[in-house]
Amino acid sequence: MVLPFQSLEDFRVELTEEHELFRKAVRSFVEEHLEPRAMEIEKTDRIPDELFEEARKLGLFGVGIPEEYGGQGGGHLMEAILMEELSRVSPAFGTAVAVRALFTTPILLFGTEEQKKQYVTPVARGEKFAAHANTEPCCGSDVAGMQTRAKKVNGHYVITGRKIFITGADKADYFVVSARTSPPKEDKRWWGITVFIVERDTPGLKVGQRFNVTGLRGERPHEVILDEVKVPEENVVGPVDQGFKVIVSTYDHTRVGIAAQAVGIAQGAFEKALNYALQRQAFGRPIISFEGIAFKLADMLMQLEAARLLAYWAATLADKGDKKFVIAASIAKTFATEVAERVANMAIKIHGGVGVDIETGVERYLRDALITTIYEGANDIQRLTIIRQMLKDLFGIKLVLT
To answer: Is 234 a catalytic residue?
Structure first.
């Protein structure tokens, strides 16, 4: 036993020539289309429609989605490679492409065949945008505490509430929305939540203010207001009152992508720091020749490669359908996002004064890295998940921490 795992086989990372060919294809797209406009995205706080069109032509919105629903297939590992390559240059664009997984994953895992064909297919083809509306002013990581309500009335549901920090809401044609349909049970606080598919043009649904968060310029989140939004019963995703499981299972899967995004951020920051250290002269020689700079770069590279291996490892376990991927995803997400923060911070210091100049494009990596430590489960929540899952798997212990 390799505690808390069972065997050394659990640590196998299974990459193929297909994965490398895919990475090269995405890298080509990034260098030809995305990189020349990365600073434009940063300055205008908007992603040009032409970039989405080019991504659609390449089928990037369908990566990880089965071919029978309009996708490209490929699984979590292919999605991780995609997210890493996009985020190396523009984490905002990576988020804009990847957010569709927060909509498609719960439907693919828990939805009906009709829901998959009607809603997943156009999103996978890049014909429609989609978002995931769960976070509320009262509750982020505390999903069970949500206050949005859905009342059943004559074969449909009426939803009222407010969601905040919803990525992609401004463009979304479809939303996955969570709401409380029943009171929680005494011993099951999570009970009573249901997940719905809501179309954007449904009366009562309004996309409100944009939140000017510190990072991800070009793909900053919005609020979603639901004022007696009428949703047909057939738009319920998964069992009624058991939507908590739908939501947390979704995050278990999509969390791997955040680890990969953090790897991309760290890679981009490292490359900028390395290039600058080779070119910048001080006291008559390149600054990389100074031990203080060289050691920083060595530390950055060590942490970056460790984060990449963890992200690919979690993705491999998820593709195998191994239940241990849940703890692996939390480990990878927590480690990789904190590595991205440290690497970006060191990249700024290596650049010195120009590192905090917005025009150089270095400081944005730190702002974007900070976001990854918070969304899709803040890192302290991931630490709780890691210890709880380990004790549950090994000893059957249900740990309650406060």
So the answer is: no
